[in-house]
């Protein structure tokens, strides 16, 4: 791969037609499971973000790599046990059916996870702000 891909099309056109079909299937599955996510290229791979990075995926020599992060793998570890896994990734071999329903469930899990972390971080942030305001006003002593 010579030049860096700027979008999904530039990325996928580098692969044979059968691999392109698998990449499009993964892309379509992610889009359907997370319609509000934004497509991007990250680490020279197709990816989707939703406030933060949601998932990545990529074609390799003999498999599609799917990268939902450690939490996405851990939450579906038993269902992914037939595949080669690492802490934050799983390999779907080209010669086996692509588990689109499992990919969709992992993506939906990641969407909920990001939404929960976003709402808890915004409530932590507002709590920190109110605590800071409270400290500032309480430190002002009347003369």
Indicate the CATH class.
Answer: Alpha Beta
Order of helices and strands: HHEEEEHEEH
Number of domains: 1
Largest sheet: 6 strands, antiparallel
User: What is the helical fraction, as a range of percent?
Assistant: 40-55%
Structural class: alpha+beta
Strand order in space, largest sheet: 1-2-3-4-6-5
CATH overall fold name: Aspartate Aminotransferase, domain 1
Measured distance between first and last alpha carbons: 72 Å
Q: How confident is the prediction overall: mean pLDDT?
A: 88
**Number of H/I helices:** 4
Question: Which regions have little confidence, pLDDT < 50, spanning 5+ residues?
Answer: 130-139
- Roughly how many Å is the radius of gyration? 20 Å
Question: How is this structure best described in words?
Answer:
The radius of gyration is 20 Å and the shape is globular. 19% of the residues are buried. The chain has helices spanning 8-12, 17-33, 69-75, 100-139, and strands at 38-42, 45-50, 52-59, 63-67, 84-86, 89-93. With 143 residues, the chain is an alpha+beta fold. The protein has a single domain, classed as Aspartate Aminotransferase, domain 1. A 6-stranded antiparallel sheet has the order 1-2-3-4-6-5.
Notable characteristics:
6-stranded antiparallel sheet, 6 strands, 143 residues, 48% helix, alpha+beta, Aspartate Aminotransferase, domain 1, single chain
Give a short summary of the structure.
By secondary structure, the chain is α+β, with helices and mostly antiparallel strands.
